[in-house]
User: Fold these one by one.
Assistant:
Number 1:
Amino acid sequence: MSQPANAHDLPAVFLLFQIQGDFLSGAPYGSGHINDTYAVVASQAGTPVRYILQRVNHDIFKNPAALMENIARVTAHSQSVLADRNDPDASRKALTTVPARDGKPYAFDADGNLWRVYLFIERATGYDIIENTGQAVQAARAFGSFQALVADLPGERLHETIPDFHHTPKRFQALQAAIEADFHNRAAAAAAEIAFACEREGDTGIITGLMEKGEIPERVTHNDTKLNNVLIDDATGEGVCVIDLDTTMPGCALYDFGDMVRTATNSAAEDETDLSRVESRMEMFEALATGYLETASAFLTAAEKRHLAFSGKLLTLECGMRFLTDYLSGDTYFKTKHPEHNIERCRNQFALVRSIESRLEEMQAFVDSL
């Protein structure tokens, strides 16, 4: 759970890291719900300099040290690639971790909390809601750039911080188990939604099947490609930097693009109950595809490009199945506002699947035209 600003001794945590200067102030920052995030100000030779200080939520991330190993490798490699390009804005285009006093990318406080520090990226803002197609283009360009930066990450395979996070066949198996158990006697009320998911079981294994055959490669992926995980330059409106790397791990490029389609093209809120308002907006899809392929086209395989439109359908179906599984299981994973919240979210996502299905050929034709 997030803590109030005075729940942590920020000056003491500040001293655990190799930050040049003296602690001036610290205050909660951003709209995240998982980790505790603060903007702290240091005085460096009389000049105030900001940093991002975060407590990693180890109730959600069971192995935060492994998570931080992933982040340290990804950010260091990204900065190295940008430096090799002589990019004058490298420190704004990829996150930079500040090491702890012992050289590790994290430190533990007196209460056993794991903390990390990033350089604060100035003159850029994160937005919770996509306001126009221009932002969609920039967000997709930024995620494509992120994947390109880490496409040749050397060394061992990254840790799987959340195993099988987007393994859709296993998500379907979890749904089947919840249907069979029906511990809360909700299956009857969700009969239509259960039937919808079961009719599309064959879709769930398409991408994993291609990966198992070696036709689609495993890549380093972000796995949480919402707009608010891209910082937009305040002056130019360009996507500057991808943030929130906690779920960065081995995956499939299509999962990242598919989740962009799921979150950005929906014409309604995720829990909108008037399903007539739920539609996958073609103009937003075109913006995402345009931006993403500008930066990702060079490394994507032909098989990946052929499944870009399908990935939007698959990730939306997967999310709907997760809401349905949680509803049948008694709402144990997602936060809910009322007993029907998860089934309403499920219906919303399945309505979006229908909309994507109706435009799937048109969407892929647009991708092919690029």
Note: The beta strands are 22-28, 36-44, 47-55, 107-108, 114-119, 124-126, 219-221, 230-233, 239-242, 249-251.
Number 2:
Amino acid sequence: MPGIGTKIKDAAAQIFVRAEANGVFDKLPAFKRDLSEYPELAVLAQNYQTIRDECLALIAGPVKIPGMDELTSYTSGGIHQIAWKSFMFKSGSFIDSNCALAPKTAALLRDIPGVWTAFFSVLEPHQHIKPHWGYWKGFVRYHLGVVIPDNNANEKCWIRINADAWDRDDRSAIAQGEKYFWHNGEAVLFDDTFLHEAANETDEVRVVLFLDVARKMAWPLALLNRFFLWIAHQDKSVKEIRRNATIKPA
């Protein structure tokens, strides 16, 4: 998690790793297609066309959407050194000026509890996000297909996850992972701490609505999770992300 001291961050992360291992909350499969545990997210797929229309207007408009590598030194290099951009609605708190550019989508997001990060993830043609692990088991990640070229008829837009690869020195284990092919208006959840990669192998841009949502768990652990998330999102690196993600006037 950005900005929390390494020892504190690792100790906090291990609390949730052990909780999952002890069955305090369920381990997710590679891809969770049944979103009934998070019914508050259903409103997004129900309003897919509205979200898509606002997204297409942004992409076609004069605004410059920043690249992932522009957001902060914390995200520079590595997986972010590709043509991958982020129109951010929320990073800990909402970016009001950005929200004004897609007000209907922003209004939907403001009504959903537990969302800590929300943005349009814009992956340009022929880009590959190489295998990596995420950082916090207290999140579930939500993807809604918003602009998927040819609705993935040729299965060239995908994300692959290996939910059982834990050796951080062996990213090749991704080859044994499960692939999910995005579709317009279709949503999926997954655990970002699993080894994963993604690609857009088409000639057109691919956009998903990307959320990090506080994971559902028993109340004492949920409160601890909220506490750690609140601390992390007070850090200067997250404030830097919000500042650099703010769309500048054309």
Note: The helical segments are 6-21, 42-46, 48-60, 96-99, 103-110, 219-232, 236-245.
